[in-house]
Amino acid sequence: MPSRPRPLVAGNWKMNGLLASLAELVAIRDGVAEGRAGEAEVVICPPATLIALANDVRGTVGIGGQDCHPALAGAHTGDLSAEMLADLGATYVIVGHSERRADHSESDTLVRAKAQAAWRAGLSAIVCLGETREQRDAGLTIELVGRQLQDSVPDGATTTNLVIAYEPVWAIGTGLTPTTRDVAEVHAFIREKLVARFGEAGAAIRVLYGGSVKPDNAAELMAVPNVDGALVGGASLEAKDFLAIAGVYA
Ligand SMILES: O=C[C@H](O)COP(=O)(O)O
């Protein structure tokens, strides 16, 4: 059996962050250098406007994009290719975040193409999955997550090119979280599917939990079996809170 994967704590700044926000990244970098994230790998996904500057000050903190277009280049006004993100120093890119799926009608097929683009550019894809409140209430969570996992993740996943983030849509930015039992159920299901599809790699591909992860609930959530870290939104905007979350692994 492969050893337990190195935990990953990733911050998604979403559409937040001006030049002055780089001070938070510098504080995160310094905290990580002091060992405050322990064994965890730490990544920040700032808005694309800050990636190049973030890369200049990141230290050992990895930098990721929040989305990419499937194509290498071309007439796609406003979009960014995975190669452009890599060119600026990113090593990760989030694809299929529920806000992209909702705001831009992104399908599993498109998310899969974006993950493939990430791999083409040498990036690791953080593929997001998760049910809405209505889907959970209707008992459709496992079915939905299974379909998203099957259809959004390309063949050929490895421990280095793929991270899964389970993010119940209703938990994002709401202060609500599923019970640890519910998190355990979904993560165990994702693990089972990853192993069935990718074999030994599937046992070690990291599966993050995301959705209202805060300093006061991080330890409980990160202790759930098959939870290999967190994808943090709001609480990643302040170094103090983000380091407190990553500090679970110290
Ligand atoms: O990508 C991050 C997630 O959407 C979680 O956001 P949140 O921590 O603000 O709930």
UniProtKB/TrEMBL annotation:
Keywords, in A-Z order:
Cytoplasm, Gluconeogenesis, Glycolysis, Isomerase
Metabolic or biological pathway, per its Swiss-Prot or TrEMBL entry: Carbohydrate degradation; glycolysis; D-glyceraldehyde 3-phosphate from glycerone phosphate: step 1/1; Carbohydrate metabolism; erythritol degradation; Carbohydrate biosynthesis; gluconeogenesis
Cite the Pfam families for this sequence. TIM (PF00121)
Which residues of this UniProt protein bind substrate? Answer: N12, W13, K14, G173, S212, G233, G234
Q: Where is this chain's protein located in or outside the cell?
A: Cytoplasm
The domain of life is: Bacteria
Residue numbers annotated as active site: H97 (electrophile), E167 (proton acceptor)
Cite the GO molecular-function annotations of the record. triose-phosphate isomerase activity
Give the EC number: 5.3.1.1
Membrane recorded as keyword: no
List the Gene3D superfamilies hit by this protein, alphabetically: Aldolase class I
What does it catalyze?
D-glyceraldehyde 3-phosphate = dihydroxyacetone phosphate; L-erythrulose 1-phosphate = D-erythrulose 4-phosphate
Query: Which enzyme class?
Result: isomerase
Where's it mainly located? cytoplasm
* InterPro entries attached to this UniProt entry: Aldolase_TIM, TIM_sf, TrioseP_Isoase_bac/euk, Triosephosphate_isomerase, Triosephosphate_isomerase_AS
Role played:
Involved in the gluconeogenesis. Catalyzes stereospecifically the conversion of dihydroxyacetone phosphate (DHAP) to D-glyceraldehyde-3-phosphate (G3P).
Query: Subunit structure, per the record?
Result: Homodimer.
Q: List, alphabetically, the PANTHER family matched.
A: TRIOSEPHOSPHATE ISOMERASE (PTHR21139)
Q: In which family does this protein belong, per the annotation?
A: Belongs to the triosephosphate isomerase family.
**What protein name does the entry list?**
Triosephosphate isomerase
Source lineage: Bacteria, Pseudomonadati, Pseudomonadota, Alphaproteobacteria, Hyphomicrobiales
Q: Which gene encodes it?
A: tpiA
